[in-house]
């Protein structure tokens, strides 16, 4: 089993959830986190574990070490990954909207940052690399999306993630690094307070007494995956004996944004006695109309499938946000 982990973006939603799961399974694990704190915070990490903040890594020291640095700094990356057994690369410029607003920043974080990690892995002889990709590289294709569909990204974000997948393939084929690219569906769940994706955004708006904005007619579809299931896929990938693979990691179920809105409306009403309101705005540039995944390959090769149904997952997520309100009314 992996004992020495290096996690980029480890203070974020997925990163803190991964750290909590690793420590629960092995309290003696060595976990090094590299994060520039542009999204996740020290407080977010402190909610799931004790940690020390340092500038240099102690590769044999059990527990969590946080280094505040940026993946675009190659010298820092190359120095810090030494001694790791598995890299989980979560740090990224995320989302279609930010990539449309600033394509260059998206490219620098997602392409140059990923290249820096892979080059550091090569130079330090690290053998396992798990890359957080997305359904966005596929672009406008007839769903369900599977790994052999020819990609046609619509947004700069999709293009930058596709470039990362390409480099992962090349570093496996040329340098024999076990690179695994996981194309995450729309991830939701507890601790998603910094996410701007639809589930988190709708819940936060509703509990703040604001209307929830639905882009376009709301008939666009996505594949929603609960955080616990996603973490299970990352752990499977970290142990996978092979490389150069891409896996769709989602629920294999197509849901419209309108459906999600109605489900959340009912759950928030039941748990918080709040009437969630929503309105429709203009369609967003770079969005695809339909997007859901065929997860057969992940089941066959990783032995992974999602376990949490949408109703259960949304109820747990709303309950988490309600708990953040403390004694205040929702």
How would you summarize this macromolecular structure in one to three sentences?
The protein is of the alpha/beta class and 330 residues long. The protein has eleven helices and 14 strands.
Predict the CATH topology.
Answer: Rossmann fold
Q: Could you name the CATH class? A: Alpha Beta
Largest sheet: 8 strands, parallel
Low-confidence stretches: none
Order of helices and strands: EHEHEEHEHHEHEEHEEEHEEHEHH
Total DSSP helices? 11
Q: What is the terminal separation in angstroms? A: 43 Å
Residue-averaged pLDDT, rounded?
Answer: 94
Number of spatially distinct domains: 1
Count all strands and give the number: 14
CATH homologous superfamily - what is it?
NAD(P)-binding Rossmann-like Domain
Please list the strands of the largest sheet in the order they lie side by side: 3-4-2-1-5-6-7-12
Residue share in β-strands: 15-25%
> What integer value in Å does the Rg equal?
19 Å
CATH-scheme architecture = 3-Layer(aba) Sandwich
Shape designation: globular
**What class, by secondary structure content?**
alpha/beta
Helical content class = 40-55%
What can you see in these coordinates?
The protein has 330 residues and is an alpha/beta fold. It has a single domain, classed as Rossmann fold (3-Layer(aba) Sandwich). The chain is 40% helix and 18% strand. It has eleven helices and 14 strands. The chain has helices spanning 13-25, 42-46, 74-80, 96-101, 103-123, 156-175, 198-207, 227-238, 257-272, 296-302, 310-324, and strands at residues 4-8, 30-35, 51-53, 63-68, 86-89, 128-134, 178-184, 186-188, 212-215, 221-222, 224-226, 245-249, 255-256, 278-281. The chain has an eight-stranded parallel beta sheet, sandwiched between helices. A two-stranded parallel sheet has the order 8-11. A two-stranded parallel sheet has the order 9-14. The radius of gyration is 19 Å and the shape is globular.
